[in-house]
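G., before I forget:
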Amino acid sequence: MKKIFAFVLVASIMLLVVGCGGSQQNQQGQQNSGGNGDLPKVACLLNGNLGDKSFFDSANAGMKLIADELGVETKVIEMGFDNTKWEPTLLDISEQDYDIIIVGTYQMQEILEKVAPQFPDKKYIIFDSEVNYEEYDLQNVYSITFKQNEASYLAGALAAMIAQDSSIGNGKKIISLVAGMDIPVINDFVVGYIQGAKDTVSDIKVAVSYIGDFNDTAKAKELALSQFDLGSSIGFNVAAQAGLGLIDAAAAADAYAIGVDADQALALMETNPDAANKIVTSVLKNIDQAILRAVQLHIEGNLPYGKTEVLGIKEKAVGLADNEIYRKIATDDMIAKVEELQKKIENGVIEVMTAFDMTSDEINELKQSVQP
Amino acid sequence: MDRILNLVFTTDFISSVIRVTTPILFATMAVLMSERAGVVNISVEGAMLISSLMGVVGSAYTGSAWIGLLIAVLSGIVYSWILAVFHLRLNTNIVLTGIALNLLASGLTVFILFLLTGDKGVSTALPSKVLPNVSIPLIKNIPILGNIISGQNFLTYIAILSVFVIHIFLKRTRLGTYIRAAGEAPEAVETAGKSVKSIRQKALIISGALAGCGGAFMSMAYLSMFTKDMIAGRGFIALAAEAMGKGNPILSFVVSLLFGFADALSNNMQLLSIPSEITRIVPYLVTIFALAIYSGRDLTKKKNPI
């Protein structure tokens, strides 16, 4: 009796599995016939999760723009923070019928260098990092990097002016920054911020602290509070989701904050207006616009694969968020000065240092020179 | 060195130590309660994470921080009770179940957050409430000391109070004695006709309530929101603190304070011209040193038995 029962059970499970497999194939078939013949199919693999209110959400917004404005079939896949899943997922997607595969961040760079040569027919786009074209055959990869240092320069200049003005800040001429990890792309923000502050107020002090990851929001708050205790008037967070801790700290310590990647004041305005009103501006990284532009160029046949493009203020890929809070807190003189600096960067009069061209020693030296 | 000393001897720094210590202290007491009953509860991290989210959700939907706290504590209890059911009734391996519950918490919180808000990282879309800071009359007027003792968060006082309550509870009450017996000599408890499993279940429920308070502190006092994986290993640090404290509530409290001090020191040292790579190892260095001194003392004790 037991044996018969087991047999029936196994048979029914097998039937179920076969049944499911069949329907899956059907679905795929439908998708194929439904796709437009001329337009590419685009997949975006995010090595994290949506909902960070900045980096990955911006990429997701870009994919929506691609679908809406270009009528392209798109798919966004969240690979989570477990880095052992990233390479298999990229391989899987490369084997499917997507034409363009978009990935981002320096953490995907090596994986892409390994995978892309295996699929020469596919096109890849990597944002916020570049692959090594000299060492690998990557004619099917297009890299986008951002001049976050340029926007951070403006943020540094604005922060320094606020810290100097005792009617807004405390007049102690100290500003601060809480960063996620001590890595080149984050240090690019740090370097730009320090240079912008120093160029505008020569004797400014900049306190820089690192969390060590992008998760520990409480630690970010603790670091920011210790900086505000030291006398900092305004703090810049460069730590994705953990950076919200700095904004919380600014609200608690009655100091100001600068957001990152997306307009963080906008994101917080509805539920936490007290904190939102402390966010003077945000350093924007318009990932959405950058990947929209790339796919558009691909359709026109003009996207330079096998190359890196560095997009800055001039290309509107980075910049400062201009909103009511900014207009309310910053004085007219400050706004005019920021606009003037922005023009100078666009014209190439001011050249902003970048962490990608500096050694760790040079970066440390710069940090030491403004140590409070 | 002078600058470090200047940094350490400020009320701001001491407040910072207290803030950093509170969640570790709750977690340590949670671990201690279960450990004394003979259960290695590594799912404190997960229980804290669940309760930090449920506290935010509860306070956002009811509009009351206190109901939020209650819901957080209840979630901690439920989560601990799940561990109790699996380990005590179904006889699963305690460590594996703990790991499973921790992983579940990480995913489940994001899932619940997504269902409620559409976000997967932070709860800023929920208008959650914050537990108040308590200023104690009279004491707050004492210079310097007043600023330290008074004005801390409500849960900080509860955390410190819990240390002494647990100390007395374990030593002086009937259930406390049973819990200690279940940890030290379960056979004796069985012989006396008491159920070890039922005692351990009670201990785990108390442990869950403490973890719930710790979680609520993270999202409703320390920060004003829930963020993904926000406990960030504090539940595991508690395992170390409890082990170093040898299951003694007072000693474990001192060790949590030491961890909190080291962490706050490392945060503040970044402001001096010390590279972050070095400051970040301070908490771990302190731990290793403390452990070395501790086990060294133990060795000498064993060599010269009284």
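The interface with chain B takes residues 49-53, 78, 182, 207-210, 212-213, 215-219, 221-223, 225-227, 229-230, 241-242, 244-245, 248, 267-268, 270-272, 275, 364, 368, 371-372 of chain A (CB under 8 Å). The two ends of chain A are 81 Å apart (CA to CA).

More on Monday.
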